[in-house]
Amino acid sequence: MHVLVLILILAATLVDCLVQAFNLVGYLRLIPEVFSLIAVIVILMRGVRYGFAFVAPKYWFVFGLLSVIILCGILTNDVGSGPTLAGMRSYLRAIPLFLLPAVYPFTDKQLQQQIKLILAIALIQIPITVYQRYVIYSAQRFSGDDVRGTLVDSGVLSIFLICCTLLAVGFMMKNRVNKWHFVILFFALLFPTMIDETKATVLLLPAGLLTTIAAGSPAGKRLKVLAAGAGLLVAFAAILIPVYDAMEVYSPYKGNKHIEDFFTNQQEMDKYMNSTHVGVGTTAPVRRGDALKVPMQYLSRDPVHLAFGLGLGNASTSNLGQAFSGNYAGLFKSFVILSVTVFILEVGLLGTALVFLLYWLVFRDAIAVARSDSGLVGSMAVGWIGVVVVITLATFYSAIHLFASLSYMFWYFSGIIAARRMQLAAEVSRSSTAYPLAQRSQVPQ
Predict the structure, then answer these.
(1) Between vectors from CA 342 to CA 336 and to CA 346, what angle results, nearest 5°?
(2) Given this model, what pLDDT does residue 33 score?
(3) Of 352, 326, 329, 327, nearest to 340 (Cα)?
(4) Are 225 and 115 a contacting pair, CB within 8 Å?
(5) How far apart are CA 153 and CA 233, in angstroms?
(6) Comparing C-alpha atoms, which of 423, 397, 413 is closest to residue 170?
(7) What is the DSSP-derived secondary structure letter of residue 176?
(8) What's the rounded Cα separation, in Å, for the pair 133 and 143?
(9) CB hemisphere CA count around 294 (13 angstroms)
(10) Largest Cα–Cα distance of the chain, in whole Å?
(11) I need a labelling partner for 236 at 20 to 30 A (CA). Which of 82, 118, 260, 424 fits?
(12) Residue 395: partners with Cβ closer than 8 Å, 6 or more residues away
């Protein structure tokens, strides 16, 4: 199974890029789904044989309740089989990876190999993005949207690299990575985020880094580590600002010349977040603020739609063909650019609330494992505290659930941490049971 996970990591982060670059058969994009099916078979076989002792009941409850809401949305909206299958592919394909570590425990050596592979994939983004930026700069173009690495989207690339950086932070804080090596790795991993012009990096990186430090460092050293983290952010900003400004030399838009102007100029921020006279059915590009506001206004006309949504896959288009696109896809084609918008439209406020509840449960498990496990998973959990924060915020920035590079990696490693917390609880329970028995055997009769 370990070899299959390694192949899955490669497929999730490279296949889309290879299909686009070499005009390969589009069905190759379904390779991650094939591994999901294999994972389902393994989970069922081992679950029947050994049980699901390391899957916390809280996750069964949330997944079960979410399934009921999804079913209600499908039935109340009479969603066809095509959109339902397409929706299941987008929403559920990574969930088997969350359950896999609970029934198939991986050794520390195997986990190290998986993490090293992800690090290697993250590092190869550097030469690739430098070349992509060079092509743009040579043509005197200004947009960094084409600086995508192998992840086919500049925003997703930045989110992926920020998450990798936070994992490195966790290993450094647990003394598994030399501090100077970490500093080099920190700036190397984040360099592509400077030249792809993802403005969200300015918000996501500090949120993830400071949360990781605040929640993952020992109480006595928290201020010291926070000060070091703040110093890293200042150094990162000192490099980012001139690099970003240099990349925007050819920009025809005055407001984008300097990144600091973007965050301090209210007019430019309004242009970034809101469009003019945008409504349901528009085919023009819309801004992120409208992508959330307009669908909410539409759903609020019907309490059932607001609660359960329009049905799984019913507001999305599908690259599998017209038969797999939803009835409302034409109305909301321009709006489904954020994961939170897709969730609200298709599973309603109730389903969206459960998605964020899942994030919260993983966040809590990461804190618990980081504080009680001195092993490899404990080190990973420290960084994962910040990763959960980044992924949660990123649902308001991009349609991240559509990208296998993020969804598969997030749910797989979240599953490792959730299973580890259950293992630690079981160990504590066994030791607390054995200790009184040992005491009783030593009492003179």
Answers:
(1) 130
(2) 87
(3) 352
(4) no
(5) 24
(6) 413
(7) S
(8) 9
(9) 24
(10) 91
(11) 118
(12) 338, 339, 340, 343, 355, 401
Distance CA 343, CA 352 (A): 6
Q: Which amino acid is at 174?
A: K
CA distances 92 to 198, 321, 355, 382, 410, Å, are: 28, 19, 12, 26, 13
Of 424, 444, 419, nearest to 97 by C-alpha is 419
User: Which single residue is written with the structure tokens 């055997």?
Assistant: 441
pLDDT in tens, 272-294: 666 666 778 777 778 888 888 88
DSSP 54: T
Residue 340: both structure tokens together: 């939170």
Choose among 306, 200, 215: nearest CA to 259: 200
- Taking only the tens place, the pLDDT of each residue in 23-60 is 877 778 888 888 888 988 989 888 888 888 899 999 99
Q: What is the dihedral of CA 425, 430, 434, 435, to 10 degrees?
A: -10
